[in-house]
Design goal:
The chain is mainly alpha-helical. It contains 15 helices and four strands. A four-stranded antiparallel β-sheet has the order 1-2-4-3.
Length: 352
């Protein structure tokens, strides 16, 4: 007899069909993610991906007694990871969720394991008595076993080394958990192929771009040479120059435009106080709020992460690229442009 999954179960195993139905009844829509009431869910969704990127081996934690956030944060995290358009982030996040499932399942009783696996359409049953090669708790249909064990390289997973009877492979709880890990990894990776970025609101896109920055910091993929301690305005790329001029004149900047400008200026050596002063001409200038935002981006407040400016692709997507010059076509990031323009200026000065 199949058991009924509780909310605690759905929080632990949000990939189940029951969890999907629970989410459907919540009517959680992409277009509603800008609602401030959903911020705790967005925070946890972002945190799930952060954990995947920063833990080794990758794994997402389980937060007890927080089911109303844990359950909906999973599909939101999937959307956010998909929106990064980064295969490494997608694969690592899928693996982290899968490892969490495996580790939680090992702590469940046998009946609960049967219930969880039935949600993914496994033909699993309790093993009866002893069979060849030892004692086992479960018997999994041969087709379901092969579907998930086909990529395993260890000898213990080879069919010739398994106990098989009546079309079923006999397995321990640990082995069932490992096979379900593979099932969940494939399930999440499939969902991560969705093209959702154009449908996400600006506040969610900002979180997605922060995750890409964390990826860059964690993997060392984005490395820049040591820059001069003093900013050289003449080396600013066209996008930053336009944003800088707009801020100086008091014109309104979008949230992403302000983030791009502040993070760039801090990276090239502009002191935080001068960055704050740049926005004093703005009609809605609030020194306390501006100072907090600048210090947060600098990494001296809040998350303690020193943020990278958005890439050229992100700026183009949000209409913050005013048009390219001859050097823009050779780079993919505003800091790469700045570094290269500095070399050109230095070479010209030496020649003159």
């Amino acid at each position: 007899m199949r058991l009924v999954l509780t909310k605690i179960d759905l929080a632990k195993y949000p990939f189940t069909s029951e969890a999907a139905e629970y989410i459907r009844l919540l009517d959680l829509r992409i277009e509603n993610l800008a609602n401030p009431e959903l911020k705790p869910i967005l925070d946890r969704a972002e945190n799930r991906i952060e954990e995947a990127l920063q833990s080794n081996p990758p794994e997402v934690s389980y937060r007890e007694r927080d089911e109303d956030i844990e359950i909906p944060s999973f599909p939101v995290a999937v959307m956010m990871a998909a929106a990064t358009n980064n295969d490494y982030i997608r694969r690592r996040y899928a693996l982290a969720e899968a490892r969490r499932t495996s580790n939680l399942l090992r702590l469940e009783d046998d009946m609960k394991i049967l219930d969880i696996t039935s949600s993914v359409k496994w033909r699993l049953k309790r093993a009866r008595g002893k069979v060849r090669l030892g004692s086992y708790g479960f018997a999994l249909h041969l087709v379901d076993f092969l579907e998930n064990a086909k990529n395993f390289r260890e000898k213990e997973w080879k069919l010739v080394n398994r106990a098989i009877q009546d079309g079923h492979v006999y397995l321990s709880k640990r082995e069932i958990a490992r096979l379900l890990q593979e099932e969940v990894r494939k399930h999440v990776e499939e969902k991560l192929q969705a093209k959702v970025r154009p449908m996400l609101s600006e506040n969610v896109i900002e979180r997605v771009d922060r995750l890409v920055q964390i990826y860059a910091l964690e993997t060392g993929k984005t490395r820049f040479e040591e820059l001069p301690k003093t900013a050289v305005n003449a080396a600013f790329p066209p996008c930053i120059r336009q944003l800088y001029d707009a801020a100086e004149s008091g014109s309104h900047l979008s949230h992403l435009g302000r983030f791009a400008l502040v993070s760039f200026l801090l990276r090239v050596g502009v002191p935080p106080e001068k960055v704050i002063d740049l926005f004093r001409s703005s009609a809605d200038f609030n020194e306390r709020m501006t100072r907090y935002q600048v210090e947060h981006i600098a990494g001296s407040k809040g998350s303690r992460t020193s943020y990278m400016p958005p890439s050229c692709a992100t700026l183009q997507t949000h209409g913050l690229c005013p048009g390219t010059d001859d050097m823009c076509s050779t780079v993919r990031h505003p800091l790469a442009y700045y570094r290269r323009r500095l070399r050109t200026i230095k070479t010209a000065a030496a020649a003159g």
